[in-house]
Amino acid sequence: MQRRSLGAVIGGGWSGLWQKAKTGARNAAVENRFVQAFVAKKWTFLLIVMAFLLGRAMILEQLSPFALAFIAVIYFTRRDILHYVGVAAFAGSLFSLHANTGYLVTEIIVFLLIQKAFEKFERSDLSLAPLLVFSSTFLVQLFAELVISNLSWYSLMMISVEALLSLVLTLIFIQAIPVFTLTRKNYHLKHEEIICLIILLASVMTGTVSWVMGPVTVEHVLSRYLILLFALVGGAPFGASVGVITGLILSLANSNAIYQMSLLAFSGMLAGLLKEGNRLAVAFGMLLGSSILSFYLGTSADVINSAWESLAAVTLFLLTPRSLILTLAKYVPGTQENLKSQQDYAKRVRDVTASRVEQFSEVFRQLSRSFKQLTTDDAVNRKEEEVGHFMNAVAQKACDSCWKKSQCWDQKFYQTYTYMTDMMTSIETKESMTKKQIPPEWKKVCNKPEQVLDVMKQQYSLYKNDLHWKKQIMDSRHLVADQLSGVSQVMEDLAKEIKREGQELFLQEEQIRNALEELGLSIHTIDIISLDEGNIEIEIIHQYTKGFDECRKIIAPLLSEIIGENVAVMREEMHERGEGYSTVVFGSAKEYEVETGVAGAAKGGDLFSGDSFSTVELGNGKYAVALSDGMGNGERARAESQTALSILQQLLQSGMDEKLAIKSLNSVLMLRSSDEMYATVDMALIDMYNANTTFMKIGSTPSFIKRGNEVISISANNLPVGILSEIDVDLVSIPLQSGDILVMMTDGIYDAPGHAVNKEMWMKRMIHEIDTTLPQEFADCLLERIFRHHHGEIQDDMTVVVARVEKRQPEWATFRWPGITRMERPKTVS
User: Fold this and answer.
1) For residue 382, with 0-12 CB atoms within 10 Å meaning exposed, 13-18 middle and 19 or more buried, which class applies?
2) pLDDT category, 228, cuts 50, 70, 90?
3) Can you spell out the DSSP letters for 385-404?
C-alpha cells in the first residue's frame, strides 16, 4: 500500500470538510427555497379562492364591483398568477345569483386594452388602476344599457354607483392585497390599512351568500369567525370595527340581514373586552353578545340558528393554529407581536449595520498592515540593490571608455569592487573630497581616479537625493498605516456602540417607570439609551408642571439612587404642540467641573490676533482646553491656528488616539499649503471623572498649575506641527486636584521678561502673586501685569487661558423611596 504524504492527508481532510460544508449549504438553500415556494403557493391558492368568491359576490342584488377591482390590483402586483385569478373570477361569476359573466368578461377585456394602450406610451402604473377600473366598468355598463333598453336616469345612476364602488374598492384592495402577495417589507400596518384588510375579507364573505349547511348560514359563520380572530388580536376596538364593517357589507349583499350589523358589532365588542383571558374567554364574549341580541331581534328559530352559527364559528376559532393568530397579530398595531416584530427588524438592521462597520474596520486594518509590511519587508535587500545600482551607474559612465575595463572588472572584479566601495565610503564621509585628496593606493589600482571621483560624486548626489525621497515615501506610508489603523479602531468602537444600543432594557425601563409613578409623576415614555458606567443616557417624556422643577429635584436624585451613580439633567425640551409634555435627557453627572477664562490682545493693538483658543467638552467624558499660535501675526496666522484647533478637536471627538490625531494634524497642515506655515498646539485633556489630565504640547510654551502656594510647570520638547513630515509626540499626564488652576499661554506672554531673565521662574512668581481664584479675573490680571511690564506696548500676539478644576457638588442629594431596589445593569457587549 502506497503511503500518502502528510500534506496530502491534510489537503484531503480540508477538501472533505469543504465538500461537506458546500453540501450542507446547498441542502440548506434547497430547503429554504422549498419553504419559500410552499408559502408562496399557499398564498397563491388563497388569492385564487378569493378571486372565485369575489366573482360570485354581489351587493344590492344587481351590482358586482368586486371582481374587476381585484383583478386589476393583481395585474400590477402578481401578474404571474393573473390567468389563474381571471379564470377563478370567471368561474365564480357563473355561480352568481344573477348572471353577470358577460359583463365581467367584457370589463376585463376593456381594462386590458386600455392598459396595453397606456403601456405603449410607458405610462402604466399602479396609481392608474382605480381610474382604469372606473372607466372600464362605466363604459361597459353604459354600452350594455344602451343596447339592451332605453337609458333612464335610474339606470345611469346605478351604473355610476357601480363604477364608483369599483374605484373605491380598487383603492382599498391596493392597500390590502400586498399583505397576501408578500410584497411588504415589514409588519407595520396603519389603522387605515387594517380597515382596508377587513373590508377585503368582508367582501370575500359576500361571495358565500345563500350558502347554507343545514341550519347554518356560511357567511354568518365566517363573519363571526373573523370577529373572534380580530377581537383576540386587537381587543374591543378591532372586534367592534370588524363587526360593523362585515355587518354593513353583508347587509348590502342580503337586505334581510340588516340586523347583523348591530349583532356583530356588539358581539365583537364583548369578545374584545375579554381579550386578556384566552380563546375560551373571547369565544364566551362573542356567544354572549350574539345570544343577547338574537333574543330581541329574531324569533325562536332565529335564536337557535344564530346559536348554531356561533358554535360553528367558535369551533373553527378553537381549531385555528396558533401560528395564524401570531401572524395576524404582527400586522395589528399596538400588539406585543407587532412591537416584537418591529424590534426584531430594528435588531436585524443594527446587526447588519454593525457587521458592515466591522467589515470596513477589518478592511482598514488589513490596509494598515499591508502599508506597514511594504515599509519593513526586505529592507536589507533593497539596500543592497540600491548600492549595486549605484556601482553599475558609476562603472557604466567611468569605465566603459577605459581600455583596462576587462582587466579590472573581469580579471580583478573583487579588487575593483572593494576599491569602488572604499571610494564610496570616503565620499559619503567627506562629500567635498578633491582630486588632491585621492589616496596614492587608488592611483595604483585605477587608471582614471580623477574621472571616477567626479562621476562618483555626481552619482552619490543623485543616490542621496533618491534615498531622501524614498525615506519620505516610507514615512508617508507609516503615517498612512497609522491613520488607517486609527480609522479602523474608531469604526470598531462604532460597531460595539451599535451593538450596545440593541440590548433589551425593558426591565430597567419598567423599574424606573414604577418608581416614578409611585411618586405621583405623570410619565409618558422612558427610553434607556445607555447604562454604561460613566456614560448613562436616559430619555424621559413627562408632563411638565410649570413652576416645579421635578427633573432636577426629584427625578434625577431618584435615578441616582436606583442606578447607583450620580445622574443629572443634561437638557430639557418642551414639545411644540403645547400638550404639556417635555423631553428630558438625563446623563452621568461628572465628578469634576471645569470653569475657564480667556484674555488676549493682538500685536500693536491690531484687530486680528494670530492666536486661537478653544474650550469644549468632547462628549466622551473629557474636557479640552486648547491654545494655538500661528506663525507670524494677523489674519493668516489666525486662520492657520484656528484650522489646527478645529481639525484636532474633530479628530479627538471621533475617538482617535491623541498621538495619532497629532500626527494626522501635522500631515494635513503640511499638505494644505506649499508655503512654510506652521502652528503650535497646546492642549490639556481633563478627564471629568477623575481629573487626570493629559497635556499635548507641540512647539508651545510651558503651562503652569497653581496648587495652593505651589506653582508647577509642564513643558515638552516638541516642534510645531506643519514643519517636519514626521514628529515625535510626547504626552505628559498629571492628576489634577480640586481647586487647581491651570494657566496656558502663548509665547507673547511667556517671552515678556526678555532673554536676560529666567522666564520660567519669572512667570511662576507672577502667577504666585495673583490672589484671585476666578479664572476670568486671573486671566485679566495676568495680561494686565504683562501690559504694565512693557509700559502698555503690545510687542506680540498675547493670549492666556485659565481653567479651574473643582469637585462637583450635587445640587440635590439622592433619597431612598420605600420598595425601590438598586438596578441591575446589563452586561456590556464585548
Assistant:
1) exposed
2) confident
3) HHHHHHHHHHHHHHHTT-TT
- Band of pLDDT at residue 36, cut at 50, 70 and 90: very low
Look-up: residue for cell 514643519?
723
pLDDT in tens, 112-167: 888 888 888 766 777 888 888 999 988 988 888 888 777 788 888 888 888 998 89
Q: Return d(Cα 89, Cα 67) in angstroms, integer.
A: 6
Convert the pLDDT of each residue in 65-76 to its tens digit.
Answer: 888 889 888 888
Q: What is the DSSP code (8-state) at residue 730?
A: -
Beta bridge mates, 587: 537, 568
- The average pLDDT across 286-296 equals 76
String of DSSP letters for 123-164 = ---GGGHHHHHHHHHHHHHHHHHHHHS---HHHHHHHHHHHH
Q: How far apart are CA 620 and CA 654, in angstroms?
A: 10
What does the H/E/C string look like for 766-821? HHHHCCCCCHHHHHHHHHHHHHHHCCCCCCCCEEEEEEEEEECCCCCCCCCCCCCC
- Output the nine-digit C-alpha cell for 689: 471623572
Q: What are phi and psi of 332, to 5 degrees?
A: -90, 120
Query: Does the pLDDT value for residue 202 go beyond 80?
Result: yes
What are the DSSP calls for 622-658, one per residue?
EEEEEEEEESSSSHHHHHHHHHHHHHHHHHHHTT--H
For residue 28, pLDDT over 70 is answered with no
Residue with more model confidence, 318 or 510: 318
Angle made by CA atoms 491, 495, 498, in degrees to the nearest 5: 135
Confidence bin at 742 (pLDDT 50/70/90)? very high
Angle at 513 between CA 507 and CA 518, to 5 degrees: 130
Residue 211's SS3 state is: coil
Which strands, in side-by-side order, build the sheet including 741-745? Answer: 592-601, 798-807, 741-745, 703-707, 710-714
Spatial distance between the Cα atoms of 85 and 75, rounded to a whole number of angstroms: 9
| Sign, Cα dihedral of 124, 127, 129, 132 | negative
Using only C-alpha atoms, what is the Rg of the chain? 43
What is the grid cell recorded at 514?
414604577
Extended strands (E) in 708-750:
710-714, 731-735, 741-745
Task: Give residues with Cβ within 8 angstroms of 258, minimum separation 6.
Answer: 251
* 8 Å CB contact between 809 and 618: no
Say whether 712 sits in a helix, a strand or coil: strand
Cell numbers that stand for 365 in this block: 486594518
Interacting residues of 203 by C-beta distance below 8 A, sequence separation 6+ = 54, 57, 66, 169, 249
Q: What are phi and psi of 452, to 5 degrees?
A: -65, -40
- 331: cell is 400586522
Strands 567-574 and 535-543: unpaired
pLDDT tens figures, 370-379: 666 655 555 5
DSSP string, 468-500: HHHHHHHHHHHHHHHHHHHHHHHHHHHHHHHHH
pTM above 0.70, yes or no: no
Q: Is the pLDDT of residue 802 over 90?
A: yes
3-state secondary structure of 206: helix
∠ CA 315-321-325 to the nearest 5 degrees?
100
